Amino acid sequence: MNKKTISIILFVFIFINAIFYKITDINSTQRIQANLEQSLQKLKTHYEILLSVQNTAALTLYDSTTKDKVFIDIFSKARDSSKEQQKVLRDKLQAHLKGKYRRAKMKGVLQYHFVFPDNIVFLRMHKPSKFGDDLTDVRDDFRVVNKTKKPIRGFTQGRTAHGFRNTFPVFDFDGKHLGAMEVSFSSDSFQQHLTQVSHIHTHFLVDKHIFDTKAWSRDDMVLRYQQSAEHKDYMITMTNQHTKKRCIVENGKRLQSIKDDIAAGIEKAVEFSTFVKHEEDVVVVSFLPIQNIQNKTVAWLVSYEKSEFIKYTLNTQQNVRIFAFLFTLIIVYFVFRQQQLLSNEKNLSDELKKSNSKLEKSNENLEQKIEQALNENIKQLETLQQQSKLASMGEMIGAIAHQWRQPLNEVSISIQNTKYDFKNGEIDEAYIKTFIDQNKKVI
Q1: Is 88 exposed, middle or buried (0-12, 13-18, 19+ CB in 10 A)?
Q2: What whole-number distance in Å separates Cα of residue 284 and Cα of residue 262?
Q3: How far is CA 233 from CA 4, 75, 205, 421, in A?
Q4: What is d(CA 360, CA 362) in angstroms, rounded to the nearest whole number?
Q5: Is the model's pLDDT at 134 over the cut of 90?
Q6: Which of the pair, 391 or 183, is modelled with greater confidence?
Q7: Edge-to-edge, what's the strand order for the sheet holding 162-171?
Q8: Mind listing the pLDDT tens digit for each residue in 65-98?
Q9: pTM of the entire structure?
Q10: What secondary structure letter does DSSP report for 149?
């Protein structure tokens, strides 16, 4: 057999395997990308549902507070009172709002906060001993609300803690501007909800440059921060569910191979998902950007989910490639043998007849084997496609079930809270109308 024939056979072998490699690569990439988008959408949906629930709770608390005659009377008097008089009024207001704040905390409220029009703090229900400080240069939301007299919602960073804040203007019953109030929820509530209720293990990362790094270890902080495993410029919000071993040490090892991909995604400041193979598992990591009221990305919601679908897709891709390699290797072997027999034709005429006979039989066997192998390959591909459809359908149904469950939970919580509001004498015609409208919207 001459070198030209050998070169042609080798070229055909490499070409066929390259085609199989490319086809499996395109197919796997499309399937994996679809799964990554589904995981990201799942995180985004649960985040938006929880954000809607919290916004509704904040608006309800704002309405009930600003319709409270005792609150309006105390807050309007405090503005022009002396410091001694303000202390008496502050203690009186704290005692009056204590029950309302306790119920609000059950709904995830972290801060229930009141400031005068000049952004001077009158009362922090979460820390009543701290008051009188000027937040003009610290809290953009208070400054803007007191200036425009319009509410603002969004992620905001304070001196020592960040939160999803709902800041509202406060007026007396004659329409006079008295100041502003805040109803805020911490990122801790998002982590707890997504981990416990939605079963999505979630981290909350905050850009370390948006607040004083000396504050990271302060004892009076509402939340605790540590350097995250995901990115050098972001701190992770630590809770009882987020241990240093799991969230920093183990994730640091797991994410090592995709650190550059994560850095590139964070640099673009747009939502993205990626995956990493770690030991026997495939983990999908989704990043959802959180913007402040200036529309600048200053935090990320990061979720971790094991993906059996991607694991199965990668294993299938590998098996198909191995099968294609062995199949083409068998074909090349028979072709090579055939060429060897033909090359001996000039030297052995007697052997040629025998070889021809053997070759014909070999060809018949080869055709049968090729046909059998092709049929088996087709059946295997059909089986893989069917399994893929069933897996995708199962994940889709699971996602739909999760999305149904969230509004039902919200309606259930709203109904349960009615009992407490009834005991505290807060149910009136306006309350019933708000209750009906909110639950109709949820339904």
Answers
A1: middle
A2: 12
A3: 59, 41, 9, 44
A4: 5
A5: yes
A6: 183
A7: 121-124, 109-115, 177-185, 162-171, 152-157
A8: 999 999 999 999 998 899 999 999 999 999 999 9
A9: 0.66
A10: -
